[in-house]
Write a structure and sequence with these properties.
Strand content: 25-35%
Distance between the termini: 86 Å
Structural class: alpha+beta
Number of strands: 81
Radius of gyration: 48 Å
Helix content: 25-40%
């Protein structure tokens, strides 16, 4: 066992940057936000926090502190700690001194040779600076620090390659080309000693101990520590660096880096890392953290001691790096620029090699861990470790029982160790059971232990004693969990998971999850997480013992799960080495951390500040880290180690630059605020990035447990971004129903006010058909559906809706669950505001949503009785009002009438107290208030017998009968009529103006036609009566009759029919939106009642709505939509069907065209292949025989591929003997030709023996893989029979003709009937007598008598 880094070191501290050359960070984000309006206070708070993060991030970027003129390059630089003075050596030999606060420094020319010096060294104690190392320079120049005067020069006579010093020692080391390594005594200038006379190229010194490390280019290392160590043949070294402490040496070879550790006076190979670019320079920090610069401009900061993955930064053309004494990183570039970079924050991390088990103390100050038979304790604050006790054999399991008690098990004994008193109690393991699991009860008094013996053993803690045991089955117990909520045990084995009652020791529930990997209980003990072997995690609701949810972890096995105490996050460790942090409300991944091995188990301290992980990679070790959820510094957790990319992306958003979505930054988060990129995109209204991030699976978690991305976009008035969220929920919420938990009631109210047309679909998606719960699919038809239940649980239960004995047959039913939880208490502030947002929403189609309809129906179900009583009371009031109107004398009837009237007025008082603004904006309330006022006036006039009594009673009747109309909203058949009346009045107002105009006009005409009566009011009333159809038979003249007839046609006929037509159109339009009008009126009525219930205003109960309803049949409805609407729907339906059909046809036509093109191309390819096959296999008649003497022929084997007899290669085209099934591939067939030709005396035209060759590039002047056959004059890419002397080639097909056809050449005759014979030696250039082509160097089938020649190709055709 090995303990690494027992103590905390300085690199855990973040040193603030104190440079005076900070960039201007006074630009506030608030200046570029909110183009649509004022921000909410919470949004401004988020903006302020982003400003703080921006300021912090700006410090993490490289800051330019020195810049040389164009063309200058920094060869070397060094830093003097006390005053932070930086000396820079430029390529020209110029030294620049830079001091804090001095932007430009002042150049000091160095008087040196013409050689370009490479190295710069400062010895503060001796007040000197040394410059040396060059191509031809043998001297090392020494200058004073203050005045930079040349003191002397050191010269060993050999060219200096490099120099380095051990600060404060007065010793300078130099490497000389092709010579020695020399140590110079700077206190006695000129005195030196030879350290080594080998040709070393690299040199490094440990800054704390002065140990010298040397290396050759070819892999030899000499480490001069307390003992000289030599290692040979490590690698081809390109970079070399000893650590600050001297305990490590980093060796780079191009793109690879390997760390060697100095242990027990020997160097041992340790961690290694491969980079994507060449390594340029290495530097160590005082805590042995390595800084690496790469040629591609990346700078990696790698803590290999604690095995922390590299942090990546970007600096263009980076060259050399140094870690300063101020804990800043300084980097020079080829462009002569020097940068300062703030040292990054590394979270706490310990590693314990070889450790298998661990457990945190209850006070979270200590960690107990087991290695084989030893139990050790680590102090988490200091990192110190000590051995606690040893067991008789290997430890199986251990757990911290209390702050000072450790319980451990082995195969033979159980141990209880008191860390305060060092007292160790040991009892015998009765059946030598191999313990797999230990569980504690809620008060840590009892231990439940299970293992391979299939029994649960119960131990008391003080004293340690086994007090009970019971058998739970026939399988090995793999884990036990104590459930404090109902005092049960959750026991997992290889076949299932059972819940056992501790009191009765019987099974109360069983979950069939065979071969489950692990299970874990949520902190509130309501959910059970079960990891399955198919990469899924099932979540069981222990309230209903049914499935709550299930999700997958990217094709890897989940080994550990922990739910945080605040209920907002849970953590999983898996076989792919990734520690994942999930949002508990939506079960979406927030961020992750990668480790170099599988995470076998995970333990979290009691205060949740520390996490221990068993990593199983190349080595098994225990890693202890600080929980990122409790991070105190502003830190970035990202799958992309290049934190500069994230910072630049963040700052570009702040500066309102054009942003491109970067997939490598997905699942990145800023801690401790839990700010994701989706929060930032939503806040700034970058809608395009919001869309991509949402569909890429970005979490909808709350920043700092306050605001979700959706809420931020609403508070920042980013309307387009809000719409993007709404559309995302429409499409994706059914895939993950728990996404609805990210939507608050405040979000819904704000979305309602925005009035998007997509709201109907949005709310429909929030009422989810629950497919998780084990619920009935049918119910007796005697039940009245739908049934609404309000409960906080996500998974409904049958007992909420029906009695246990209810028969499950009859009506087909389904269960709906609202995916959003909100305050359902009637009269509460949230309930009233939500109703207001509904009735005032610009999108009134929101009332078509089944979610809203069920919500209003549920509310109305609770108010219908109260409203009905109020309506009945008002009917009684109206009855007494009629009685009082008939008998206005004061009597007992008046007393009852006034009592009822003032009782109804008390309801108005409650409404006024509930909300005075809302009260005076409702027309019905104004009518009711007027009625109450007139009731008081009437009582006064009745008591005092005033003369205005009849008039007051008339007005009281008017307001009372008008107020009575509002009660028709109670009844579903008349509710929408209220809206119909309102709409008719609105629509007929323009008509009434024209009607009034014509009525007045005809009144004047009628008055002028009268000779006796000139009272205008009489004629106005007659004109109005004519409009209504009341006509007297007058005695008119002809002209008067014409005017009268016009009056009776225009007003009674035309105008009245026009009125009927307008009202009919209005009726159709209102009928079309009857559903909307119906629920809107009902919502207004419910809102009126809820405002009056002032005693419920501050009650809060966040719950869900569950609905059991009959399964709806699609496309069936009985609602009358109006004639025009029906026609529109019919036409729209036909149009949509036509569009769909056209789309399908166009798609089919395009696919057909594509297929035609593909078929055409395939046909062309087949024709081409056929031609090539015929051309390349034109030797099917060649006389090559199988071992049995049968001639083999060219065949195709597409249907049944056949192996070659020689090489066993399976082929589809080759040469085959159908008699003995002898088969040859093309290559083996050519070899058969080679053997056949070798047995003949065929030569070139000069009689040289031919050679079979496969590579024509071996002969000078030959084109690559190409030759021209002398027989057929074709350019060939295949093998040939070759004469190297004559540069003569013939293809194997022509050779086959010569070999096969020569014996029968005599049977073919010339024009004079002479036989032909093969003649390899052409007498001269000849022309074939058949094809007339001229040949040279090529033999022919010839008749010497007639001088008759036939070329090889033509002879093959005629033979």
């Amino acid at each position: 066992m090995e303990i690494i880094n027992k103590t905390r070191i300085i690199d855990e501290k973040v040193v603030p940057v104190t440079h005076d050359f900070k960039p201007n960070l006074n630009i506030s984000i608030t200046k570029i936000l909110n183009p649509f309006g004022n921000q909410n206070a919470e949004s401004l708070e988020f903006t302020k926090r982003l400003d703080e993060i921006s300021s912090e991030f700006s410090q993490k970027l490289p800051h330019e502190i020195a810049k040389a003129p164009v063309g200058f390059s920094i060869n070397d630089f060094t830093i003097i700690p006390p005053d932070k003075i930086i000396f820079l050596l430029y390529k020209t030999g110029t030294v620049l001194r830079l001091q804090q606060g001095d932007h430009d420094g002042y150049p000091l020319e160095v008087l040196v040779t013409e050689d370009l010096l490479q190295k710069l060294v400062v010895e503060v104690n001796l007040n000197i600076i040394l410059v040396g190392g060059g191509l031809f320079e043998t001297r090392i120049f020494v200058y004073t620090l203050d005045k930079f005067e040349n003191v002397t020069s050191l010269n060993s006579g050999n060219i200096v390659s490099s120099i380095i010093n051990y600060p404060g020692s007065g010793i300078l080391y130099s490497i000389h080309a092709e010579a020695d390594v020399v140590a110079w005594d700077l206190k006695n200038m000129g005195k030196f000693s030879v350290v080594s006379n080998e040709n070393f190229k690299f040199i490094s010194v440990s800054q704390s101990k002065g140990w010298l490390a040397l290396a050759t280019k070819y892999g030899k290392i000499q480490y001069i520590a307390d003992k000289t160590i030599e290692i040979k043949d490590i690698m081809n070294i390109t970079k070399f660096k000893a650590s600050y402490s001297g305990l490590y040496i980093a060796i780079g070879s191009k793109k690879s880096l390997t760390i060697y550790s100095y242990e027990e006076k020997s160097l041992n190979q340790g961690a290694s890392h491969d980079f994507e670019a060449k390594i340029l320079d290495l530097a160590y920090s005082p805590s042995d953290v390595l800084v690496i610069s790469l040629i591609n401009g990346e700078m990696h900061i790698w803590d290999h001691v604690k095995n922390r993955v590299p942090i990546i930064m970007n600096i263009k053309k980076i060259k050399k790096v140094i870690v300063g004494y101020d804990w800043n990183i300084y980097a020079s570039t080829d462009m002569g620029i020097l940068y300062s970079i703030q040292w990054p924050h590394f979270p706490l991390k310990y590693e314990l090699k070889g450790t298998m088990l661990s457990g945190f103390s209850t006070d979270s100050q200590y960690l107990a861990y087991g290695t084989k038979s030893d139990i050790n304790i680590m102090n988490l604050e200091s990192g110190s470790c000590e051995n606690a006790f040893s067991c008789d054999s290997d430890v199986n399991r251990l757990v911290y029982v209390r702050e000072n008690l450790i319980f451990a098990t082995t195969r033979t004994n159980f141990y209880l160790y008191n860390t305060f008193t060092n007292e160790l109690t040991k009892i015998k393991n009765p059946d030598e059971d191999y313990i797999n699991t230990i569980a504690l009860d809620s008060i840590r008094q009892l231990l439940y232990v299970g293992g391979t013996k299939m029994t649960v053993k119960v131990f008391s803690v003080m004293p340690l004693n086994m007090i009970d045991q019971f058998s739970k089955g026939s399988n090995t117990i793999q884990s036990i969990i104590f459930n404090p909520l109902d005092s049960t045990l959750i026991i997992r084995d290889s076949s299932c998971i059972k819940i056992w009652s501790i009191e009765s020791k019987i099974e109360v529930a069983n979950f069939d999850y065979s071969k489950s990997l692990m299970c874990s209980l949520s902190y509130d003990s309501k959910l059970l997480f079960i990891a399955r072997p198919d990469f899924y995690i099932s979540v069981i609701s222990l309230d209903s013992n049914s499935l709550y949810y299930e999700f997958s972890i990217q094709k890897c096995f989940c080994k550990s799960i922990y739910t945080c105490k605040d209920g907002s996050t849970f953590i999983t460790g898996s076989s792919d080495g990734i520690l994942r942090f999930w949002d508990m409300s939506t079960f979406s991944l927030i961020f992750s951390i990668k480790y170099p091995g599988a995470i076998d188990f995970m333990r979290i301290s009691e205060d949740e500040k520390y996490i221990s992980l068993k990593i199983d990679g190349k080595n098994i070790y225990l890693t202890i880290i600080e929980n990122p959820l409790y991070e105190k510094h502003i830190s970035i957790y990202s799958p992309n180690p290049n934190i500069h990319n994230f910072i630049k992306h963040f700052l570009d958003i702040r500066d309102k630059k054009q942003i491109i979505y970067d997939p490598s930054l997905e699942n990145s988060i800023i801690m401790p605020d839990k700010i994701t990129l989706l929060h930032i995109y939503a806040h700034f209204g970058i809608t395009a990035n919001v869309k991509v991030a949402l569909y890429a699976g970005a979490p909808l978690s709350k920043y700092a447990n306050k605001l979700t991305p959706l809420t931020l976009s609403i508070l920042s008035n980013q309307k387009n971004t809000v719409l993007a969220f709404v559309k995302f929920f429409n499409k994706k919420i059914t895939e993950n129903p728990l996404l609805g938990n990210s939507i608050s009631i405040e979000d819904l109210m704000s979305i309602n006010k925005l009035g998007f047309s997509a709201l109907t679909d949005f709310y429909d998606s929030l009422l989810w058909v629950n497919t998780i719960a084990n619920l009935p699919v049918a119910i007796s038809s005697t039940w009245r559906l739908p049934i609404h239940i309000i409960n906080s649980e996500f998974v409904p239960q049958k007992s909420w809706f029906f009695s246990p004995e209810t028969e499950e047959n009859g009506l087909s039913i389904e269960f709906l669950t609202s995916l959003v939880s909100f305050n359902m208490v009637s009269g509460s502030e949230e309930s009233i505001e939500f109703l207001k947002s509904l009735v005032t929403s610009p999108c009134q189609d929101i009332f078509r949503s089944k979610f809203i309809q069920n919500y209003i129906d549920h509310k109305w179900h609770h108010f219908i009785l109260i409203t009905s009583i109020q309506c009945l009371l008002y009917i009684i009031y109206m009855g007494f009002l009629c009685t009082v109107s008939i008998t206005p004398d004061f009597n007992s009837v008046n007393i009852i009438f006034f009592s009822i009237g003032f009782t109804l007025s008390l309801y108005e008082v409650l409404q006024i107290f509930g909300g005075i603004r809302e009260y005076f904006t409702d027309i019905w309330n104004m009518i009711d208030l007027s009625r109450t006022i007139m009731l008081i006036i009437y009582a006064d006039s009745l008591i005092k017998s005033r003369s205005s009594q009849a008039t007051v009673l008339l007005i009281l009747n008017l307001f009372s009968w008008a107020r009575g109309i509002s009660y028709f909203r109670i009844f579903s058949r008349t509710r929408y009529m209220i809206n119909l009346i309102t709409e008719v009045i609105k629509d007929v107002l323009p008509f009434l103006i024209i009607l009034g105009y014509s009525t007045i006009g005809f009144a004047f005409i009628l008055m002028l036609m009268s000779l006796t009566n000139t009272v205008f009011s009489d004629f106005l009333s007659n004109s109005y009566l004519i409009t209504l159809g009341t006509i007297d038979k007058p005695d008119y003249s002809t002209i008067q009759w014409i005017c009268f007839i016009l009056a009776t046609i225009i007003n009674p006929v035309i105008m009245m029919n026009l009125l009927i037509s307008i009202m009919g159109d209005t009726h159709d339009r209102v009928q079309e939106s009857k559903e909307v009008a119906d629920y809107r009126e009902l919502a207004n009525l419910i809102l009126e009642i809820e405002i009056a219930t002032i005693w419920q205003r501050n009650v809060t109960s966040v719950q869900r709505m569950h609905v059991c309803r009959e399964v709806e049949t699609k496309n069936v409805g009985s609602t009358w939509l109006g004639k025009v609407r029906e026609i529109k729907n019919l036409v729209n339906g036909i149009k949509m069907n036509q569009i769909k059909a056209m789309d399908v046809n166009n798609k089919m036509l395009s696919e057909n065209n594509i297929l035609k093109d593909q078929v055409g191309r395939i046909e062309k390819i087949l024709i081409s292949l056929k031609d090539k096959l015929i051309d390349s296999n034109d030797n099917t008649k060649s006389e090559i025989f199988c071992p049995q003497g049968h001639q083999i022929k060219f065949e195709y084997f597409y249907e049944k591929p056949t192996p070659c007899t020689n090489c066993k290669k399976v082929i589809e085209v080759g040469y085959y003997c159908s008699i003995c099934s002898h088969c040859l591939c093309k290559s083996c067939f050519k070899l058969a030709y080679k053997e056949k030709v070798g047995k003949t005396d065929i030569t070139c035209h000069r009689g040289h023996k031919l050679t079979w060759i496969t590579d024509h590039t071996q002969y000078k002047g030959y084109e690559k893989k190409v030759f021209v056959c002398t027989g057929c004059k074709k350019k060939m890419y295949t093998n040939s029979f070759n004469c190297n002397l004559c540069k003569w080639d013939i293809c194997y097909k022509c050779m086959d003709i010569i070999v096969s056809k020569s014996p029968i050449a005599w049977s073919k005759q010339c024009a004079q009937n002479h036989g032909l014979a093969w003649n390899p030696k052409p007498h001269s250039a000849y022309s074939c007598n058949i094809c007339k082509v001229t040949f040279q160097k090529s033999g022919s089938f010839r008749c010497d008598i007639c001088d008759y020649d036939v070329c090889i190709r033509c002879f093959g055709e005629i033979a």
